[in-house]
Amino acid sequence: MNFTASSIVSAIFLMFSFSFEANALSPATEHLLRTKQYEKAMVRLEPLARHGDAEAQAYVGYLYEGGFGVSQSYSDAFSWYEKSAKSGDPHGQYATGRLYAHGYGVSRDVAKAIAFYNASADEGFIPAQTMLGICYEIGNGVEQNYETAVGWYKKAAGSGSAQAQNNLAGLIIHGQGITKDIVYAVSLFRKSAEQGYPNAQSNLARMYYYGDGVPQDYSKAAMWFQKAAEQNLAIAQYNIGTLYLKGLGVPQDILKAKEWIAKAASQGFPDAVKAMQTLGEGVKL
Fold first, then answer.
1. CB 241: neighbour CB atoms within 10 A?
2. Could you give the C-alpha distances from 232 to 90, 118, 260, 276, in angstroms and in order?
3. Using an 8 Å Cβ cutoff, are 141 and 135 in contact?
């Protein structure tokens, strides 16, 4: 049974989120959104959107994209996001970029996606800055450039983005676009992990397991793997299961080991599937 912790877990995915912080929404409408009273929120937002309020247009797009209080419709979401974007709202610009990037409600056009991400990021919108970091890191829609990725990640990480902190640390670990600095990377993983970001929690656990940039500490490794596993991160579920199996950082507990490894296997995590077969507990996927 092998422990899988040699790879840093990055976060490369579609970020579907919305900020209900400093904005022009009335307190009553903001409360409705925060408490998920979406139908009532739509009643307030749609008239504003139809009268050209860019921020309201972005929120109406969000409701259509998620099917919150309305029938889900990517085409309607795109229409509202685009209206908002053309008025210069950074939420709308970022969201329009996302839908272009994935071809949701509009023909896929990565070049247009990048243009909208840039417009939003230049306004200081953190998710757009993070997304540009991802695009430059993996070469999606732009020529791969680690230095540029680092620049965007630093902007977002400095504003508190847990995802950007985690991804920036991953580049630092490998010395990609920035000088390799394990201690600095650990500090970023910790900042992200303490915000509850599961990928960073798993990565910080890895650092403690191997003693990279921190004194080796199986107990702390187990603690952070546990936190990430409880958020359904498959690699963390497998790793905490393996620690229970071996009694490293936690009391040996074969039952708990099997439970965690089975959770990872049910998500199709290859090492976990093999482990369950070894343990005589084949998992149907």
1. 29
2. 31, 32, 10, 18
3. yes
136 contacts 145 by C-beta, under 8 angstroms: yes
Give residue limits of the domains in the chain: 8-22+33-123
Tell me how far apart the alpha carbons of residues 67 and 94 are, in angstroms, rounded to a whole number. Answer: 19
Q: 121-178, pLDDT tens digit by residue? A: 999 999 999 999 999 999 999 999 999 999 999 999 999 999 999 999 999 999 999 9
Q: Which residue has the tokens 């050209």?
A: 52
Regions in the chain scoring below 50 on pLDDT:
1, 5-6, 13-14, 20-22, 283-285
Enter the CATH code of domain 8-22+33-123: 1.25.40.10
Q: What is the pLDDT of residue 26?
A: 87
Residues 68, 69, 73, 75: is their CA dihedral positive or negative?
negative
Classify 85 as helix, strand or coil. Answer: helix
Beta carbons of 105 and 73 less than 8 angstroms apart: yes
pLDDT of amino acid 280: 73
Looking at residue 143, what is its pLDDT?
97
Residue 92 tokens read as 């709308």
Which ranges of 123-253 does DSSP label H, i.e. alpha helix?
126-138, 146-158, 162-174, 182-193, 198-210, 218-229, 234-246
